[in-house]
């Protein structure tokens, strides 16, 4: 899977989000997602929101996704 496709899926599924996705082997990825909608949510809830944008690709085409989820305020610290 292509990191750009993952970025597009996340940004489409979380309108207004900005995602940066890296991964060299096509199955293991790292992503930083900045989204207003993360405000007031625990990390596990934030991660679930991102996983929901990827659907059944998680655990299939995407073997592993390391996430860093931030609100815009957190990203600017």
UniProtKB/TrEMBL annotation:
InterPro entries: BolA, BolA-like_sf, BolA/IbaG_stress_morph_reg
One Pfam family hit: BolA
Cellular component terms (Gene Ontology): cytosol
One GO BP annotation of this record: DNA-templated transcription
UniProt record similarity statement: Belongs to the BolA/IbaG family.
Name of the protein: BolA family transcriptional regulator
Species the sequence originates in: Arenimonas caeni
């Amino acid at each position: 899977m292509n990191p750009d496709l993952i970025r597009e899926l996340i940004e489409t599924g979380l309108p207004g989000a900005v995602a940066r996705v890296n991964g060299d082997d096509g199955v293991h990825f790292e992503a930083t997602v900045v989204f207003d909608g993360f405000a007031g949510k625990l990390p596990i809830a934030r991660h679930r929101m991102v996983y929901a944008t990827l659907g059944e690709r998680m655990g299939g085409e995407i073997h592993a996704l390391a996430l860093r989820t931030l609100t815009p305020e957190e990203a600017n610290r």
